[in-house]
Amino acid sequence: MSIGTSSPHDASAAANGHRDHIECFVNGQRQRVHGETAFWTLSDFLRHHLGQTGSKIVCAEGDCGACSVLIGKRDDAEDDRLNYQAVDSCIVFMHQLDQCHVVSIEGIGDAENLSEIQQAMVNCHGSQCGFCTPGFVTTMHGIVEQCDARQCKPIAEDTLRLGLSGNLCRCTGYVQIVEAAKSVSPRDVSRMNDRYPPGTLLKVWDELGDDPISLEDGRRTVFAAKTVDQAIAFKTHQVEARMISGATDVGVQNNHGHDPGDVRLDLSGVESMRQITVDDVITIGATATWTELLGVVEAYYPDFGDVIRRFGSPQIRNFGSIGGNLANASPIADSIPFLYSIDAKLRLQSVRGIREVSVVDFYLGYKKTELLADEIITAVICPIPEDHETVKL
Q1: Taking a C-beta distance cutoff of 8 angstroms, is the pair 223, 234 a contact?
Q2: How far is CA 371 from the centre of its chain?
Q3: Strand, helix or coil at 236?
Q4: 21, 23, 38, 344: most buried, per Cβ within 10 A?
Q5: CA distances, 108 to each of 135, 139, 191, 201 (Å)
Q6: Sheet harboring 276-278: ordered strands across?
Q7: What pTM did the predictor assign?
């Protein structure tokens, strides 16, 4: 299915080795997105273009979870499968979704064939007005997706409550919803990789190659890099470009009428910037999500792990990045106090090379940083505590 309209820029981009569209799937259906719709939020695309209105919009800030959907990406551990996580569709831009599979409530079940979780919500009276229900259901499926498929016991209540902390309900209350989730075991819930066999999707994506993506709608441009070198080359010639990774803050600004700018540099497809390695230090790629970060950092800094669990919500942690949290230079950024306390360093990269700056020296004032116009934060470097050291937050 072809979405959007082409332009002379699109043709020239393709000729120069730049792909002029993104390729994604929505509920198993292939979508080719370019032109104006590439700048839409995912929720707008679902509701206004595809006519799939099950995902509801309430806050448009990623706080309430009513718009939650599942996004599947190639699994790092098993590259023949997709890893599905719940995200807030209202603050995700379409140009961030290249090589992703979006599953909305319409793709999870229907009136004739309810999913196991949908049926549990019916059985446990987990819905009254129903406005928040699609978001709860998709988030519950996201929780199950992260469980061992062989697990035959219901998910523990504390795990469910934490997993549902990004979804709000104002009429049913949470008891019946939690009871519904507790009434099913992960082994009995159909998985997205079974419902949507990944072979076809992966074959389409494998054929795309590693060409960057250049999109334009007549007034705005977004360059979606696939490598650090591509990103740096673009930033060198477009120093005014607004860098976007998770967009959990930029997406909110967009929904409040503050356009991210005429030129965007999308870093969400630079896989090397998502890597987290542990050697003499912990090197965290700048686009690593908070969910990915939690699994590594809490082993060395348990208190920071507790902070991360309360960072935003699961939907935010599944998409928001540590680099974006730092580059945004907000004085209330959750990661900064911890990174200050351990004297973490930021790796800044440009065509001139790489330099490392202490996070203490990185901030020069409100919304002012040491980052030069043509530089990109590529990694955060954290020391590993000595055996006799304890970091308390």
Answers
A1: yes
A2: 24
A3: helix
A4: 38
A5: 11, 11, 10, 17
A6: 276-278, 281-285, 376-383, 345-350, 353-358
A7: 0.92
Residue among 312, 372, 317, 363 at smallest CA distance from 340: 363
Judge whether 333 and 326 are in contact, CB under 8 Å: yes
Helices (H), the chain: 8-15, 42-44, 105-108, 116-123, 133-145, 157-163, 175-182, 192-195, 198-206, 228-237, 250-255, 290-297, 302-309, 314-317, 322-327, 336-341, 359-362
8 Å CB contact between 241 and 263: yes
- Amino acid at the residue 283: T
Determine contact, residues 51/80, Cβ cutoff 8 Å.
no
| 309: its two tokens | 């669990």
pLDDT tens for the 393 residues of the chain, in order = 334 433 444 444 444 678 999 999 999 999 999 999 999 999 999 999 999 999 999 999 999 999 999 999 999 888 899 999 999 999 999 999 999 999 999 999 887 889 999 999 999 999 999 999 999 999 999 999 999 988 889 999 999 999 999 999 989 889 999 999 999 999 999 999 999 999 999 999 999 988 999 999 989 999 999 999 999 999 999 999 999 999 988 899 899 999 888 999 999 999 999 999 999 999 999 999 999 999 899 999 999 999 899 888 999 999 999 999 898 877 778 889 999 999 999 999 999 999 999 999 999 988 889 999 999 999 999 999 988 888 887
* Residue type at 102 in one-letter notation: V
| Rounded distance between C-alpha atoms, residue 207 and residue 149, angstroms | 30
Question: Cα(254)–Cα(375) distance, rounded to whole angstroms?
Answer: 24
Counts for the chain of helices (H) and strands (E), in that order:
17, 17
| Whether 102 contacts 26, CB under 8 Å | yes
Dihedrals φ, ψ of 127, to 5°? -140, 140
Q: What does the block give as tokens for 68? A: 């939650």
DSSP code at position 207: T
